[in-house]
## 1
Amino acid sequence: MLLYTVLPLEDVLAGMDAEPSATMLLQLAGLDLEVEQLEGFRAKVVRVLSTDPNHYLLPHLQPGSIIRLDQF
C-alpha cells in the first residue's frame, strides 16, 4: 500500500500499537450506534451504523458526541 502525505511517518503511525478501547452497540430510537462507555451514565459515539444518509447529519449523534445513557 502506498500512502502519499506531507506528514512525517511517525505522525501517521502514531497510536497504531495502542490497544483499541472497548466499545458496545447501542440502539437509540431505531438507530444503531457504536459507543465507548465513559464514567457515570455517559458514552461517546464512535460511529453510526446506518444506510440512511440523513442519520449522519444528526448533530447530537455525530462521532465524538457525548450522550447520556440514563435517558434511554
Note: Residues 21-71 form one domain.
## 2
Amino acid sequence: MPEEKRRRLRGASISMIFQDALSSLNPVLPVGWQIAETFRVHQGMKRREARERAIEMMRRVGIPLRRSESGISLISSPGMRQRIMIAMAIALDPDVLIADEPTTALDVTVQAQVMALLKELQEEFSMGLILITHDLGVVADFADKIAVMYAGRVMETADVYETYARTANPYTKGLLDSIPRIDHEGDRLKAIPGLPPTLTDMPPGCPFSPDASSRPAAAARTGRSCVRSFRASLRVPLRRRHLRFERGGPE
C-alpha cells in the first residue's frame, strides 16, 4: 500500500497507544497543539476549531485544561502522559484501537484507572480494542477473547473464560502456572524453562518444542478455540485459580 494511503488509515481507521508515552510524544510542542494537529492533518480543520476539539478530547479523558500549553517533558505523571496518548488515539473515532502494554510503567491504582477509561471509551465509541500485554490479570478483567503468542506465532486462541478454565497449549499452561497463588504460601514461583527460538532462524515445527525440527506443529480446533502445538490435546480442567471474572466463572 502506498505511504499516502497508509497515512489516511492511521489515526482515522486504526489508531495505537504505545507502551512509553514519553518517547512517543513530541518533547518540544505543547500537549494541546499535538492533539489539535490530528484534526488539522486528517480533517483539515482551522486552528481555532482544532484547538476546541483538542480541549474537548482532553476533558473527555480527564486531562486538566491547564496542561494544554505544557510540554510533555513538564508532565511528570506517567498516568497523565498515557491519558494524552489516549486522547490523541481516539481523537478521530477509529474503528480499531491497539493498546501496546498501556499500563506497564504505571502503579496499580493508575493501571486500574487507565484500563477502566479504555473500556469506557471502547464502549462509547463502539471501537474494537486490541490489547497487547503480559499482564494476565488485566486480560482476565477486561478481555473477551485471547490469543496467546510465542516466538511471534499464535499458539492458542479462545474466549477468556475457556482459556483460563481449560487451557490446552503447554505454553499457555506454563503462563498460568507462573501466576503467584495466595493459597500456596511458601511455594517457589514456577518458571517456564528454556529460551525462545531465534526469530531469524525459526524451526519448521512447533516453536515451543525442544525438538521442533522433527515434530511438526498442527492446528487443532476444540469448540470455539484453536490450539497450535504438537503437544496440544483436548482441553482438560485445571485446578481452581483465584481469578475473578466479570461475567461469572471460577474465582
Note: The longest strand covers residues 153-159.
## 3
Amino acid sequence: MSEQQTAGAQALEVLQGSIGTHGGFMAISKTTFGGRVPEARAPNYYNVWARDGVICGLAGVASGDAHCLDALGVTLIMLGRNAGPVGQIPSNVTPYATGNDGVSYGGNAGRVDATLWWLVGLGVYGHAMHDDAFVRGWWGGVTKAVELLRAWEFNAGGLLYVPQAGDWADEYVLSGYVLYDQALRLLALRWVAYWSERLFGNDHLLRTVVHTKSGKVVEEQDTDRVQRAIERSFAPIGGPSAYRLAAFRPGGQSTQFDALGNAIACLAGGGLMTALDYGQAHLRRRLVPAFHPIITPRDSEFADLVAAASGDLRNMPGRYHNGGLWPMVNGFWALALRWVGREDEANDIAAAIADANRLDGCAFAEFLDANTGKPGGTWPQAWSAAGQLLATADPRFLLPPK
C-alpha cells in the first residue's frame, strides 16, 4: 500500500469512528492512533452537527464507503426531524435527548449555514444513493428552507444577511453579506433546482417574484438571481490574482481573503478563478490559511476578535480562524483546484493535509498554527479526516449533473 493509500485508509478509519451509536456523524471521532483518548473541548462535540455531519457525509460519498453513506442519511434525518417552526435546520442535535433541550439552532446568533449544508447534503445523498423517494419525503422541509432563505435576505436583494457568529467562523469578525454563506446557498439552490426538475418536472419552487426599481414585476429563478447578486456585489480585491472580498455590510467591508468562501464560490459558479492564484501564492506550510491576512494586535479589528471570543482567545495571530491552517478548508480548496484542472497543485494540497493529520501520531487536529506548525484545537476532528478524503476526490460528485 502506498503512503497516500495508507493515509487515506487512516482518514477513513477516523471518519468511520465518528459515527455514533445513533448512526449519525459526531464532530469528533472515537478512533485514535497510538492508544490516546480523544480530547473533546466540550460534550457537544459528540452531538450530531449540521455543518460537520454533512461535510463528513460528503467525504463518505466521495470515498464510496457504505457505512459513511448510511451515516449521512441518518444525519440528514436527525437534523430534518428537528427543523424549527419556520424551516431552520438545527446547528446541532443531542442524540437521545427529549424535547427542545436537545436541539440548538446556534449560540448568541443562529447558524445560517446549518440550513444550507442540510440542503447540499440532501441533494448529494439522494443523487449518490439514487434515492428519489428519500428526497421527495423531505420536500416539505426543502420548501420551507428555501422560503426561509428568501426571508433572510431581508431586502429581497439576492444575498443572505448573516449575523456575526452566524456560520462556521463563529469567533471571527465577519457579518452582513458574507461570501461563504452566499456561495454555499448558491450550491444548495443548484441541488434544489436539480431535484425540483427531476421530481416534478419544473422549477416552480425556485421562482421568485421581484419588483424592480422601475416598478416592473418580473419572475426570476433564485439560482440566477443569487449568482448575479454575488457577481455584482462582491467586488474583486487585488490585481491579476483577484478574489472576492470576505464580507460587506452597511458602513464597511471586510477585504480579507476567505479560502473556504472563495473555494465554494468557484465550485458553485459564482467565484473568480483568479482567487485560486491568490490562495496558492499565500500558502503557509503548504496549506491555504482560513483567512488572510492575519489580524494582529496592531490592527483595529483585533479588539473585535477579543470581544467575539467565547472564552479564551483562540484567534491569536495564525491560529483558529485568524489565519489557522484547517484540513477541512483545504479539502474544499483542493476540490476547487481539481474543478479547474489544476491537478498537480491539488495533489500537493492533499499531501500537505495528510502530513498535517499525521502530526502528533495522527492526531487529526482541528487546525495547525500557521506560525509554529503545531496542531491546535480539538482532536481527532472528524472533518479533518473528511478534508483529507475530499482533497483526493473528483469534484463532480459535489455538483448536480447537467
Note: The chain has one domain: 26-398.
